[in-house]
């Protein structure tokens, strides 16, 4: 009897050990895919053509798709189990996915999205929040969180997501990878669940700029053409002032890379806030209806409001009936936005702003311009924190994201290393329809950008000195732009800022002297000229008395 009992204990022990072993394996499996996938399967490409024909353009690459794309025989979950319960399995595959598979790539599964693909955090309480491989304990960004994580964790070569108000750009920034939002309408929306038709774009993630471009050429169906380089790279100075990390850590990387590849003459500086205020007249009409004619809100904040309105208004048009019928349990942050009462009569104004915005950005960039902005102002927030829900966080994020979303222009997120152990990035925007040009620009500049990132991260000893000198030059350039626009007081402010940062440069004093002369402030002008002459007699004389425009200095 005792022997029988002992055998039972041995078997029980073996059983428990087996259970523990299986549990450990399951936990390991979850960690290995970082919680990125909802479902795994394989869609295999056709056999490669026999030589001497060229292989398929995406041969050997693997990819995943966000859980908003239809795959024949599989459920399209939309980030919510109630959606799955109330919808049949897809009876066909999204043409975008089919195009990639026919191009030689293998699709290996579907990835997590925010609830109803609506948020920007990447969180999903139903399926779990994918782990950010680049910043443990921090949010991956959404809505296409799983797709970004799958690429960042090297689980696939590229992936597909949907970008409405940042659904590809934000997770790319938070996970430290490339993310491309194409021009609105450039890639077919057929076979995906719509969020906001006026804003939705099918975007893609990759780590390798060559793969990003190859995928883009297949999706955009681009014929062969000679690669073009940019003729102007415009730094959106006011947008960079929103950054919660040192501005120079991002802007100067782009500036140095541009100077090395193309020369300094390509660089321009622009105040996007002022530009949009002057080029989008319907903003004033919109603001007057909201605040009795007082134009207090910035133009970029108003553009962000347009984006948020279109997202909510069109989401309701698409899904209000289902929400009313099914009454799904939603995250409070999402339900508060979805159930917000909207003024339907404002639709005409919003659409006018959107159209004017597109024209304004296209006029600024033309065929060969790149607008450089931060992708997002803040580093990835910690999981469980409330920071991303705050009004100030949302305002900073949306004012940057809305530029491409509302104008319909193409935008790419480019990783620029780390700051305080968090990924940082920059974004390039090209005109609507300039997708090939933007992909080519990324391909051309990527290596140089990463070299400048390495230089910036290694230059710790001289970092503060270099930073001040470069910041002073930026301030001077802003002053020159203001001078050309005959904004004398503004020019003086910028030249003063340059002097505070680097007070030993004669040019800053001589340029400020010219601005003082325009205002009739002769004593201040004379003092600045004297100081310039003291610092550098020859430079001081010529700048103060011979050059009518400080832009030459």
From TrEMBL:
Coiled-coil annotated residue ranges, if any: none
Stretches that traverse the bilayer: 6-23
Every Amidase domain range: 56-208
This protein's record includes keyword Translocase: no
InterPro entries recorded: Amidase_dom (IPR023631), AS_sf (IPR036928), TPR-like_helical_dom_sf (IPR011990), TPR_rpt (IPR019734)
Keyword terms, alphabetized: Membrane, Transmembrane, Transmembrane helix
Pfam families in alphabetical order: Amidase
Descriptive protein name: Translocon at the outer membrane of chloroplasts 64-like isoform X2
Phylogenetic placement of the source organism: Eukaryota, Viridiplantae, Streptophyta, Embryophyta, Tracheophyta
